[in-house]
Batch of 2 targets.
Target 1
Amino acid sequence: MTALSRANLLLARRGPRRADRAFVAGTRISGSLLVATLAAIALQLTISSWPAWVAFGADLMTKTIWDPVREVYGALPFIVGTLASSAIALVLAAPIGILAAIYLAEFAPRRAAPVLTFVIELLAAIPSVVIGLWGLFILAPALQTTVYAWLIGALGWIPIFRGPSFGVGLLTAGIILAIMILPTIVSISREVIAAVPDSQREAMLGLGATRWEAVRKVVLPYARSGIVGAIILGLGRALGETMAVTMVIGNGQDIPTSVFDPAQTIASKIAVTFNEASGGLQTQSLIGIGLILLVMTLLLNVVARLLVGRVTRGPGR
Amino acid sequence: MSGLARPVAGPIVRPPIAERLAGRRERRRTVDRAWRGLALGATIVAVVPLAAVLLFVAVKGAGALNPDLLTKPPKALGVGGGALNSILGSAQMVALGALLAVPAGILAGVYVAEFAGAQAARVVRFASDVMVGIPSILVGIFVYTILVLPFKQFNAFAGSVALAIIMVPVIARTTEEMLRLVGRELREGSLALGLPTWRTVVSVVIPTGLTGILSGVMLALARAAGETAPLLFTALGSRLVNVGDFGKPMDALPVFIYNGARQPIAALNEQAWGAALLLVLLVLGINVAVRARSWARRAG
């Protein structure tokens, strides 16, 4: 299977064996170190937050008061903020991302497709803090006076669109997150769609279908689980995204009731509060909600990898 | 059922079949065109944010990017000075992080590609995939608990380790993928010449995949250079120029941007834009260079 696996190694044994063994051991240690680091992160977050779990149990996740003075910590507002901002991001980014991926994989001119793909993937390389800077000083004020003003005027009677808007807030965070997960969704969906065998399309086109019908009836069903995987990977990224969200979500302490309310995600709460925390229960509670975030992202990543792997490797496995 | 003739339902006048089909074809073509247009529109929408971010960073950053920003530390009191502390800090912490991460990452990649059994390979590969997805702020907390808390001192070494943890899985994955592309014959030839396994890997296999591995390393560096969250609780940031003292706090460009942006002081905001332009030039420069090269190779 791998070219230098055990059998070949035996062949090579004639040479200076000790050096070989040391080398192989060295690579094995590095590999193990990688796995060990992952385990250590999970373990360390669990141990460091243990006192908080003992003190509050599930209250840490279900109570809404986070008060360092009284030493009570309930992180529900931040969990809600995390889920809500990520949900907004998905609602915006998933349809746009999938359509863009379809365009790049199916419709784009042969020369233009790689350039466009490259440009969209480049967006993922821009540091989070720079996106945050742009979001805070450019996007948020621009949205506040245009889109938000209009939304509040037109839909303000619906509670979740109740104004006023301060520019920063839950919806702005969701939009920023959508921008940040778009490259993930586009690039993986595009790969998955491109991995659909041409015979599938050809059969459909041969029957007289239009290109869109071939995409709609054959390519998308074939690639479905991979596209779902791409969206879940995007979701995983959105849940844990820190700096840009911290800068545009407005640092609200309560459960947001309108999309314009300032809010807080788990990650942004940690970013803003961790260094001010006194050690003790507050720090432990912050690490505790970090652990919740870790579990959420780990689960999503595992599921997504399985789904994406299933398509790109073919339906056989 | 099929044997029964359908009852004839009155004299309904239908257009001839050819005409009906033509109409339907027309409708299907319109639908096709509409969805294609929509897909193109979505692609444009996906490109706009990048353009907008780059435009504003270039315009607002260019105004703030002056020699002072590059050569002076922040003033000890009040506003002004430059970002020298963070430029030097980023350089040092990314360098030390790379020093830790590059050997570890490459060796781990070699292990997966060359020596690991199927099961072990899957475990390590899976671990690196998952680690890439861990929110970087949690890496910051992790390193805080092992390298800051015990010494009761925020320090640049902890920052470097945090960046290294972010780099390792990226490097390991690219290394593995690149080594996979190296032909079996090369390995066999080298072994047949009597080279020991380690020489085969170090002198034949790795050099063959080197360009690809270097691309991975450069992309990992670019990612680490742009990370803020893992540094907040480790290196912390500092207004002082710190050269070489990894036991003390140190600044970094992303931290400088964050701190400059969140204070309601126009001069600091402006400095943040300048530093952002610097960081974007660096990060995008690396990305474009690396990808353009691998592109050229594929085309040529």
Note: The radius of gyration of chain A is 24 Å.
Target 2
Amino acid sequence: MENVAALSVLLAFCAAIYALLASVIGRLKRKPFLIVSGERAVYSVWVLISIGSAILVYSLITGDFRFSYVAQHSNRSMPLLYKFAAWWGGQEGSLLFWSWLLSTYSAVVVFTNRRKHRDMMPYVVGVLMCVQTFFLILNNFVVNPFKMLSLEGSITAVQDGNGLNPLLQYPAMAIHPPMLYLGYVGFAVPFAFAIASLITRQPGDAWIHTTRRWTLITWLFQSTGIMLGAAWAYHVLGWGGYWGWDPVENASLLPWLSGTAFLHSVMMQEKKGMMKVWNIVLVSATFLLCIFGTSLTRTGLVSSVHAFAQGPLGKYFVSFLALAIAGTVYLILDRLEYLRSESQLESVISRESSFLFNNLILLASCFAVLWGTLFPVISEAVSGEKISLDAAWFNKLMIPIGLFLLLLTGVGPLFAWRRTSSESLRRNFQWPGIAAVVLVGALLAAGVRSFYALISFGFCLFVALTVLMEFYRGARAIAAKNSMNLLRATYELTHRNTRRYGGYLVHMGIVLMFIGFTGAAFNKSDVKEMGVGDVLDLSHYQLKVVDIKEGENENYQWHRATVLVSRGGDMIGTLEPEKRFYKASRQGTSEVGVRPRLNEDLYLNFGGMSDDGARAVIQAYVFPLVSWIWIGGLVLIGGTLVCLVPSKVKMQYARTEVVGITRKYAEVPK
Amino acid sequence: MKKYGKFAALIAVVIGALVWLASTGVSETKTYYKTIAEVGQMGDKAFEQRLRVAGDVASGSIQHAKGEVLFTLAQDKQELKVVYTGSDPLPDTFRDGAQALADGRMGRDGVFHASKIQAKCASKYEAKPGNLRAAPAPPINKS
């Protein structure tokens, strides 16, 4: 069976190379049959990788411990979900997973475009298969997941495996990597279309229209993945944080930032024909950052708490990135003339300008995060000393950037195209502005002194009000015209232009998340060694330990404290923080006790037993407003889904476009 | 070209502010990676800079005392006594034999005062490539 798996992945490698060559040569020599056979080869790549993956998953589930990968990442006592999740729990398996996702995406692209974009598709296939070939090289020759355990020349097995890292044995974590990978891999598609349209000098913006949905879905996966990662860190790591600017976290944020910039700047190209070069640069950068992010966790370039082991992968990723960058830069420079902008900036207070600054800030933050992440490498190269920057540096830089972006979220969509009159400025911003100032004044009076918190709350209210006013104004107009109630009219309004109002919802989600982030300015915490009967006062809570238990099951040993929570003498609940020690991997994890409420979370962690074994070390935290991060995340996901629904009314853009439309459905090139 | 002047000015202001924030931030939070041997050779400079030292937690060296944790980091036969006084809980992965990163300052008493500890389990998240052959547990006897 292991031979079938290894062989099918090897064949997939050959098929990918064939698809690449057949498509590109077929296009150059104008041989339609060769092109079609190249596309068929894409399907076969998918089938072959699927076979390999299925066998790996089957061995993980049945516990075939002759496989070195299975022995390291699965064991007998693990629940089924985590046996399956072990597919992406380790280096070799996760790269196979990457390959499989890419082949799936490629097959979907080929299928959905089988009658469209005939002149462009061969190159799209070519680019996708280039990437696929690279990953299959890794799968086959560098980190093969089908290595067997051997002893003195014969294949052997172990009794039981190490099991998946217990930190990863958590539902959100089981689906966090696939979400993130779906996001990472997905950007290969818009990238492939962008490159193909550059190579063939496509007139018009066909690649943007085709990939808009791809980009949105991919972005949605990425956002979800990042949110799940944050939620996982909060609930599992036991330090109560959701973001620590660790290199691996940064790796997932980088393409998200540039992808967000891309989602905004394509609107400039669609509506005004501007920023064409910029969009190609952005989509390429996003894709390359995805590859970079994949490599960062695997090559040991930067030390991180949750990186994979250092391996031989570094040079492969570096060469691939270098080749891809060189190719993209050459193509863009060679075809600059074709990318010329169709209009110009006119006024600083205009929609164009707000897009420009949105992009500037997103890209600046992306660059800053990249810089901070790679600082140890850069400083070592420049001065010979390895210097690292910690979370304080990132916060110092990213808080102002974030606040500026938050402000743009509110004002940007309300500026008119070209230039904005002072009358419209006053109409849109007068009341939100006044309300925000009043709020900041009230908070000051209430004793809030944190500068950033004041600014952030002010901006949050301002942006929330501008968004709500947009909905209200539109809905009121529709309600009056069609005599509907306001709720129905809001639905109608959103349905008429899903992109616009879905976008507003996403902005609203961002606002809610910022409210949650800002709560961190008011965190409180305390640590105490507590025996049964001891009491700890934190903020307005009294925490009383009533029981400390220990026990074990086949997967892990545990210690658990039962803590009664009361406030002002009233009992309000019981929390049971727990410490686990997994036997197979000999590693501990925390199961925190959280009392989530909209205004604040009470968060208890079982730090460990005291040295005499009689008392428990209890870490208690109060995190104000943190729930709003998760709520905001859900609103953001909902908003993105709304954007994906086709608008009821087809929007006609004022911009004329003669070429392109007709050639969009062109036949197989002669 | 004149209308681009305003844009250029605004962009310059934004980028300037960011560069200023970034560069002042660097001098405040930068931490030097040093090996245990290098810390020993730094002399007086070791007391002035924030350092980050990596090593394996020596077996049996972890002692919990009131409000602090004492342990010894070892790397290439060099040892360094570390006292952790931070308020955050130690990571779950921190135990005998784990690879740990201690972040803090060297004390005049020869003990490294760490304010932050990161730990990576040596046996897990991924065995080092060299350890791959040393498969866990003895093989099944096929008799």
Note: Chain A touches chain B through 72 residues (CB under 8 Å).
